[in-house]
Hints:
Elements: H1 2-34, H2 42-58, E1 82-84, E2 94-95, H3 98-111, E3 120-126, E4 129-136, E5 139-145, E6 151-153, H4 156-159, E7 180-188, H5 191-203, H6 212-220, H7 225-229, E8 234-241, H8 249-258, E9 268-270, H9 273-286, E10 294-301, H10 304-310, E11 312-313, E12 316-317, E13 320-324, E14 329-341, E15 346-358, E16 361-367, H11 371-376, E17 380-381, E18 384-390, E19 394-400, E20 410-411, E21 425-427, E22 434-436, H12 442-453, H13 465-473, H14 480-483, H15 488-492, H16 499-512, H17 517-523, H18 531-541, H19 544-549, H20 552-556, H21 563-574, H22 576-587, E23 609-613, H23 621-630, E24 634-636, E25 645-648, H24 654-662, E26 665-667, H25 669-676
Parallel strand pairs: 2-13, 23-24, 23-25, 25-26
Antiparallel strand pairs: 1-6, 3-9, 3-10, 4-5, 4-7, 7-8, 10-13, 11-12, 14-15, 14-18, 15-16, 15-22, 17-20, 18-19, 21-22
2-(butylsulfanyl)adenosine (IVH) binds near residues 92, 130 and 146.
Amino acid sequence: MEEFDLFADERQQDLAEADRLRKELRHHEYCYYVLDAPEITDAEYDRLMVALREIEAHYPEEVPKDSPTQRVGGRASGQFTEVKHLEAMLSLGNAFSDAELRAFDERVKQGLPADTKIEYVMEPKIDGLACSLIYENGKLVRAATRGDGVIGENVTANVRTIRSIPLVLKVPEGETVPELLDVRGEVYMPRQAFMRLNEQRAERGESEFANPRNAAAGSLRQLDPNVTAQRNLAFFAYYLVGEGAQAKHSDSLALLKKYGFAVSENYQVVPDIEGAIAFINQFNELRQGLAYDTDGAVLKVNAIYQQRILGATGKDPRWAIAFKYPPEQATTTLEDIDWRVGRTGVLTPTAVLTPVKLSGSVISRATLHNEDFIKAKDIRIGDKVVINKAGEIIPEVLRVELNARTGEEKIVEIPTKCPECGWIVERQGAEAAIRCTNPHCPALGREGLIHFASRDAMNIEGCGPSVINALMDAGLVRDAADLFTLQKEDLLQLDRMGEKSCDNLLAAINASKENELDKLLFALGIRHVGAKVARTLALTYGDINKLFAARPEELAKVRDIGGIIAESVVTWLGTPTNIDLIDRLKAAGLKMTFTAPETSTTNPFFGKTLVFTGTLPTLGRAEAKTMAQDVGAKVSGSVSKKTNYVIAGEEAGSKLDKARELGVEIIDETTFLEMLGKNQ
Ligand code: IVH
């Protein structure tokens, strides 16, 4: 009995300590993510987290859902469910000029009794996506996107990973919170997180997000909350709905702040529309320097009773409007046009400009798209041109200042030869693009090299398009074999390559030498040799020398390889430049053989049929497929009753729906890897 009491005592103490740690961690999350003023180092924070995890591991049944350890939990959801908003999520009408703002103010006055004093709250218009957060008794229970305003998508698991969103509201001792709170605000991606994400995506050969808003939307609508958690999203609260809302909107904002939300520090109460216009002018200066993108300012009638009288028309409230800043423009001189050959042989014109400041950065180049664009705008060298930032990121030439022409301007000469190799260029059919016709143009080699290093091929980490371009532009690399002769001194010359990145890149290049022959065959970019054919060839021949010795008739008899593929392989292997390339790769120490992995009948995927859908967070499609095949699984392209597992990633579509319909087991990448016995 005494012993039991002792345990009970220890349990009590542990649980109390866990509670204390949770409070402390919440406080530090608030300081770091909301106030942007950390009180402890990251390492200290991590130590507290480890301490809490240790205790919680002993009492799993006592871990509350809102513990800081539980921000990411569970698996990919497979699909977002629909939820009905407690109150419609309205959108905003737009104003683009002072006159339109004054007209809005007139409409507000018309809608209220004569001589009513109307105060406005001015707020930044954050460029992200609207979200509704439901708190029951101070705990976050549901988060939803706006959807059509009435029905949104349930994104709770993803929203829980956003650290500036409290899982439990901060409530001062002795105070209570309303039973139900609907907090509206904007999920956004800070500029820095956006740039970093795009850099990473470019390195991995993935498409980049056009702007922080798209990046935020794409990140919030991830099926796997683990992916959202890595995207560094943030949240600003800007509206409190229904119960809990104060008499004035500005008081609601103050209350939201008290509850632990991030509220933009740039909001201001103004006495009338002139004050609103003054705010808009001041804020235009300020917003360039903010850590997040804004595309305007929002005016809201401050008194909630006035908001109620005014109501809404369709989707827009009559008591609020968004002022949109015109995209910033600048005038400068077009000094020259630089024609660059892209990876597909297309020549793209770029304007070389006298450097000019625009939206807080110095611009010296702008896109001109193609020949038709230059002609339609009658752009000439020496012209004064007006540029703007399209989508706030890439500058574009908007128009020519025709009045500023001196007669000295030169008509743009459209190239007839490729600037990279000197071959004839041509414009085919209705295409606006001019292309280099040389199949061996070094620009195409660039594309080949990008493929060589890509994830499903040699998988050289940190060797994405921008690094390959830099290496080629610096003349350090012409083909794949050159990659393996790179020295640290070579790499250090490149922009943005520090000691550490150079070491990492060299290590990744070195590690890729150990790839099996199938990867290399795929990486070489032989026409018609995709990942699957490369694997069949590697499996069948086991050694590149044997493949060299194979005759076309013999090759064509191999399963899944027909005459066209056989022909293509034999031609490629018989071309002197390719023979030389293979010799140099051999000399560099690349593996030229294939060892078939052992198939274990005990693996859960053995003999099972798998379907992959959507983009997996870390594995390339071909890589994942190979891994499955290596353990004796069959990989199919469509879901049927025979499918045993569907492995779903980002943006999985109809296959996932089908799997649900048929009741097929759906797993995410993490589970897939776990089941394969590959603990990451
Ligand atoms: S208020 C009725 N305030 O802009 C209240 N919206 O163009 C409606 N937005 O859907 C929203 N910053 O996603 C409000 N400070 C702010 C905002 C803001 C950004 C977004 C929001 C809304 C869209 C309308």
